[in-house]
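#onboarding

Welcome to the new folks! Below is a worked example of what a typical request in this channel looks like: someone posts a single protein sequence, and someone else replies with the predicted structure as tokens. Don't worry about understanding the tokens yet, we'll cover that in week two.

Example request:
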Amino acid sequence: VHRVRLARREEIWSIAGLLDASFAANAAERSPWEALVARGRLALDLERRLTPWDWCRHQLLVAEDLASSRIVGFAELWAENAAACGVSDAVTPQPVVFNLCVSPSARRQGIAS
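Example response:
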């Protein structure tokens, strides 16, 4: 069983690892140092996005396994215009989900649905 909630700062390193595991094209070819640098860059990028200028426009969401408290999924929600958030018939651009990823060990369990 899992729940979806807003990400917290102390989870940035875990989220960066999840993103790297999900999207790195050359993960098998990297040295441990290169993997650490890549994860660090992702963590810095997440830190910037976790401090948005308008919380309604950008949200970082995690799926947490309730039994282990482990982060098993991640997604970002972005809206071009704050007026689009929560309004299904808004004329402004609607929110977009991106960087949707699920831990390999937790896939096929409906977490990304």
